[in-house]
Amino acid sequence: MRRFIVTIVATLAAVLSLGVCPALAQATGAGASYVPPSFDHPRKVVLSLSENEPARVNEVIGNVGNVQRYYGADDVKIALVVYGPGIHSVLKGSPVAERIEGLVAIGVEVLACKNTLDTIHKTAADLLPGVTLVPSGIPAIIEREAQGWYYVRP
Fold it and tell me: Measuring CA to CA, how many Å separate 81 from each of 1, 16, 24, 33?
């Protein structure tokens, strides 16, 4: 019986080391290698803003700042994708314009959805300085995730 258990454990270890079952390997921690955030290996975090209520907009902006303070400016890359009603926060004259400009100033990539701008009959000229236009907000998030970014919807 003991030999049978040893054989099963050895077989399981071999399967995990070959990557045959990545989900099981990840769940058990087999083959996992933690790399702490650094200048050369920064954490990459993409957040979204799709609401226009002032309290919610300020909460999301605050979360962006909290992430950067936690990791340090050199150890994290942050992108904020703005779409839907949230687009109003990145337009010139926005009540949070100063805060958005502050994010841009500290290196946060603020991305605005062109589809949403088209819907409200605005153009890139209506955006705050430093805000980058992307064709579509949600695919911008999906593509970042595909490139290894962590998606956080605060």
Answer: 57, 37, 33, 29
Q: What topology is assigned to 43-152 in CATH?
A: Hypothetical Protein Ychn; Chain: A, (3.40.1260)
- The 10s digit of each residue's pLDDT in 100-115 is 999 999 999 999 999 9
Do 43 and 76 contact (CB within 8 A), yes or no? yes
Q: DSSP character for 83? A: -
Angle, CA 17 vertex, CA 14 and CA 18 arms, to 5°: 90
- Over the chain, what is the mean pLDDT? 85
Burial class (CB in 10 A: 0-12, 13-18, 19+), 115: middle
What pLDDT digit, counting tens, does each position of 17-42 carry? 444 444 434 444 455 688 899 998 99
Could you tell me the residue ranges of all domains in the chain? Answer: 1-33, 43-152
% residues pLDDT > 70 (the chain): 79
* Count of CA atoms in the C-beta half-sphere (13 A) of 127: 21
